[in-house]
Records
---
Amino acid sequence: MSTARRPLVVLKLGGSLITEKARIMTLRRKILKRLCREVSRALSVVDVVLVHGAGSFGHPQVKMYELDRGIRNRHQLEGLTVTKIAVETLSIEVLKELRKAGVVAMPIHLSSCVLSSSRSEKVELPLDIIRKCLEMGVVPVLHGDIVIDEERGIRIVSGDYIAVELSISLGARRLVFALDVDGIYTSDPKLNPFARMLTELRRDDLDRISLGMGVEMDVTRGMKGKILEAFRAAEHGVEVIMVSGLRKDYVYKALIGELPERCTRLVA
Ligand code: IP8
């Protein structure tokens, strides 16, 4: 159960939404700024845990040093620092925009407080710290990260995994994925003009649709990985909504529990 007084919502801001994925370490500041204001307004109704993706502040760096394959030589270790600098730079930008929007936020970096083991799928998250922040009315901010792993040296933990795990463990009412598209489509809407958006998505539908979006540059499985993760939350009774963060007030509406006109709801 949530320890917070109000309904708890976990918000995942997609890396493709808040960064230019094709241009290394480039922020989409106007979009981020507006989204932070929407979070700020929603805080009068719900408690929020914010998780963001790494976008071009993490994926190109991980790919460059092949960090997603674990540590095999010393040169790769340099990539650890390079990637952390990039991800933390984005995290600071998110915090600065939250601050400007009047949100009191606390960054929680998994790399500093988690030791993972590849023998387990699960990564233990610092729930006590997050619960305490919520209790104090502070918004915990997490992001896709690199953590030290007992067997492989390092492990990439996606923001999607973090958001899903938190929504289940904290008993969140809702999990909102803010995307750079309106929802989940029958195929990639950026490539196929006939792609149809699905207002409801069931696990069975996954066999009938083609999910190519973002997979090429994404070291954490892109859209398909996101949806498979998200179904875990839906199957634990969390309401899961995929919504465009490009449309004004859609994230705000999803946060406070008003279904925006266009979005995809996962049906467990
Ligand atoms: O963008 C990936 O997190 P994501 C984290 O949420 C790194 O998949 C370091 C690439």
---
Amino acid sequence: MSYKEKLLLIGGGGHCKSVIDVIEAEGKYEIVGIVDVEEKLGEKVLDYQIIATDNELGTLVKKYRNAFITLGQIGKGEKRKELFDICKKAGFNFPVIISPHAYVSKHAKIEEGTVIMHGAIVNASALIGKNCIINTKALIEHDAIVKDHCHIATAAIVNGGVIVEEGSFIGSNAVTKQYITIPKNSFIKAGSLAK
Ligand code: JB2
């Protein structure tokens, strides 16, 4: 049996379920539990228990080295950024999680705490920053840059050379014209064309 590193998940809602599926499919990490709010202690998300609150992160880091933000983001990524910064300060390491059903070019770069979900494509010379969600079936084309704490939602298209500045949300099925810049903390509506 191969050894798996232990991984703690932060946020146990709907997005957490989708990320668990990716983590299980990838098979590199053993999920040891979920950190959520006090009222949810003891509840389960799929097969995994909510074991602690954010107050216990300082203790948990001594036991489990790796954490991953599984709270989602519709609109601004402030909460995800806040939790990422808290965990970073506590000393957690953040892996990159890539679905075996995604395609990531060997010429692309993905930074810590980012998840590339099932069916997503990240093409050559693309750069994805920290703590991003590249959601199911999203397309990040060549030379695109997605900065930290962004969520590219399901089936959204970030075309070639686009820069998505920090904390932005690109809604499901939205398309961004090539080589434009999406400003910091933008909200691009589902199904829209950004040009
Ligand atoms: O401060 C917090 C905190 N605040 C809320 N710390 C921690 N550790 N957890 C927190 N939470 C928990 O995040 C909530 O108690 C809840 O369990 C979870 C958020 O779950 P929810 O299902 O409301 O949203 P989500 O963020 O998982 O998913 C949204 O974003 C996804 C990308 C949904 O709208 C999904 O439909 C979407 N796919």
